[in-house]
Design goal:
Layout (H helix, E strand, L loop, with lengths): L1 E4 L5 H12 L1 H7 L2 H14 L1 H12 L11 H9 L3 H21 L4 E6 L2 E9 L2 E5 L8 H14 L3 E5 L5 H10 L3 E3 L3 H10 L9 E3 L4 H10 L4 E2 L7 E5 L5 H12 L6 E6 L2 H14 L4 H10 E5 L3 H11 L3 E4 L13 E4 L5 H6 L25 E9 L1 H17 L3 H8 L4
Parallel strand pairs: 1-11, 4-5, 4-7, 5-6, 7-8, 9-10, 9-12, 10-11, 12-13
Antiparallel strand pairs: 2-3, 3-14
Helix pairs in contact: 3-4, 3-9, 3-10, 4-9, 5-8, 6-7, 7-8, 9-10, 11-12, 11-13, 16-17
Amino acid sequence: MKLLKTFGDSAAVAEAALQELEQRGVVNTAKVDAVVREILAEVRDRGDAALREFAARFDGLTDNQPLLVSRDEMQDAWESTGEELKAAMRLAHANIRAFAEKQMPRAWSFRPVEGMEVGQIVRPLVSVGCYVPGGRYPLPSTLMMTTVPAQVAGVERIVVCSPKPARETMAAAYLCGITEFYRVGGAQAIAALAFGTDTIVAVDKIVGPGNLFVTAAKVAVSHHTGIDMPAGPTEIVVTSEDGDPTGIAADLVAQAEHDPEALAILITSKSDLAEEVLLEIKRQSQGNAIAQQSLASQGYAFVTQTAQEAHALTNRLAPEHLTVDAGADLRWVKNAGSIFIGHHTPQSMGDYMSGPNHVLPTGRNGRVRGGLSVLDFVKIITVQQYTLDALREVGPHAIALAEAEGLTGHAESVRVRMR
């Protein structure tokens, strides 16, 4: 992990690093775009045949394995799961559902003038595909984070794709009542969800995190089907003036172990805190090869001249996960996927138990949206209705605007109904 001061002799080096970090989303996916587009084209053109070829090459799918994971397999996985893990899954499931239910938007209407009623109705999407990574670790938590909000929203068809699904992931699928689960991953799974194959019917929207190949594939198909966001490799920023070095280091190592491409950053105006955290990271990452790799290549401790500069840098980076010292820090946070407050709020609790979603915006997309939520699975449809009296009162103003824009047909469509 590199320590860089944003002032003095290292100011130019720190600024160059920050500018590179600001471009991380574009640069990272560019590395794999050519390969991804080839995979997408093959699956779009050849369907199941190409899907199985890629699944065999990348995910170890055998000739006699069906693409569909049966409910019996999911049930067997659940029944063979230990009671301690079952209890943890049940609690996480309940918390995720409760949080999604609180997020659910509502229908409403009002009358700006008598006889004119406007409002909105809320309708679920018809079908969604939930991508659950399955390469390095089983991720039953991600299956729950992606499918439960869709269920709360009322989505009719929920499809899960995951490469080499682990027993824990299949157990979570059984708990959630999933009926359509395919053992495919990577860009080929995104292609199947977007374009459809002989086995997998295309969906209206694709959600869920993934590696660079999955992220690049989601971006590439976004003109064809909806996506939630380019949720790529994990990012963590800890912005602290008086935090505990041991806890800070633990969070940085924990998120760094997700992926060699993970980004882990400390921002502080306290040089001694930065140095203590770096020592703790070295100690705590021993034996954790993936964390060591990501921390060595993409780990930074930025030391600023003031706390205000640290705040500005944090918003500039728009991190996926952000830890701050106290609730008062919420006043200055503008850009972040999810915020964790204080020493007793490890980011891992958000990964599993708290209820807010752990599928979060990466690559500085925290500037424009928050994490996955029930809102990603519904449509807000606006509604309007006039009586004749209301149209006669408000209509002339619409006619005036239409004629000012030279749209005479618009004006006439109002005029003929006012007679």
